[in-house]
Amino acid sequence: MSAQPELGAAMEVTLGYWDIRGLAHAIRLLLEYTGTPYRERHYSTGPAPDYDKSDWTDEKEKLGLDFPNLPYLLAGTTKLTQSNAILRYIARKHNLCGETEEEMLRADLLENQLMEMRLGFARLCYNPDFELLKPAYLEQLPAKLQELSRFLGARPWFAGDKLTYVDFLAYDVLEQQRMFAPTCLEGPGNLRAFMRRFEALEKVAAYLRSGRCLKTPVFWRTARWGSAKE
């Protein structure tokens, strides 16, 4: 990797991803919160049944990415893929990775726990047997949310007293669950309070209200849930 330039007011970065929410929502929220100027390159698929991906594959090997994939971030000479690596890169520039050893450990731990939840949810939503598998998923969801509730405890943010990048991931994962099962957060009061606290952040609130916010579709058009634009 070449030297990383500072993310500043004068430097616009490029975020490339499919024209869906997917893995990019937390990144978009973090870019907005940090006031990082950015442009998006949205890639689209062709119509059913083939869903042609050439909009992406025609560019894939021309961007100088070490591991060509979506999402990607181009920031001067820095070229990154992997959604959590992108989040960490932005967060480090703004001291949002935790300041103490405990905060950093909590962020590391929750980052991976949330990725497990995200992948499990995506596997369900893309599964041809979605309707058969949905009841079992909903049955185990309260226990997963209770684990997150215990981990958060009385803290305002998941790593501690200060906001970190992992809160952006947590918000995205929890909101997707709330979209899927609207009453799922009625039990854990601290998770509801976390959601309200996050949504009240000035720049986050402005983005969520804006026409630029890509809340849906959550997944690709082949998904059994979350594939529609609302």
UniProtKB/TrEMBL annotation:
InterPro entries in alphabetical order: Glutathione-S-Trfase_C-like (IPR010987), Glutathione-S-Trfase_C_sf (IPR036282), Glutathione_S-Trfase (IPR040079), Glutathione_S-Trfase_N (IPR004045), GST_C (IPR004046), GST_mu (IPR003081), GST_superfamily (IPR050213), Thioredoxin-like_sf (IPR036249)
Subcellular localization, as worded in the UniProt entry: Cytoplasm
Keyword Zinc-finger annotated: no
Signal peptide: none
Catalyzed chemical reaction(s): RX + glutathione = an S-substituted glutathione + a halide anion + H(+)
Record-listed E.C. numbers: 2.5.1.18
Keywords: Cytoplasm, Transferase
Xref: Pfam families: GST_C, GST_N
Location of the GST C-terminal domain: 100-218
Every GST N-terminal domain range: 11-98
Family stated for the protein in its record: Belongs to the GST superfamily. Mu family.
Record's protein name: Glutathione S-transferase
Originating species: Apteryx mantelli (North Island brown kiwi)
Gene: LOC106489809
